[in-house]
Target: Protein N-acetyltransferase, RimJ/RimL family
Amino acid sequence: MTAAVDVPRLAADGGLVLRGWELGDLPLVEEASGDGYIPLITTVPPVYSQAEGEAFVRRQWRRTATGVGYPFVIERVADARPLGTVGLWLREVGEGRATLGYWLAGSARGRGVAADALRAVSRWALEELRIPRLQLYVEPWNTASRRTAERAGFRSEGVLRGWQQVGAERRDMIMYARRSTDEVPGDGS
Model:
């Protein structure tokens, strides 16, 4: 199973590891395809087929190969089960900032997995890649994702009205940011 060679393997709290996508992750893509929200805000296919799942994984590889960013699979070490993804997107890295996004399969939610993964990728981006500012966007109604961002050391900076197309409509987003100078209790950064 081939994975993008430039995506590092990162350890995260909670018995997790972050790694590049593999074709063996197709069951994760299939579960995410059945979610009512994930396909609206990502490139996960809304109707799963093996061909669509493989195309999704290959897109993740291209993103790394072309310098767009680092798409990580969140994997539970105990059973090597993929639980979701967190991506670090570098479109604005020349401006001193990068954007993160994350999602979990429904079966993996509610256990702090996303916060542990987001914290690990953020630490790596701030300390190893030396990106001064990380940001992410969350819809105001999504309290679970807002808590995840806050647990990972991100601070809310305000509502961006009509910021992002989600499905057929433009929606408000709360911008969260974490800077290299921010102190995050228990994070070591």
Notes: The two ends are 34 Å apart (CA to CA). The chain has one domain: 10-179.
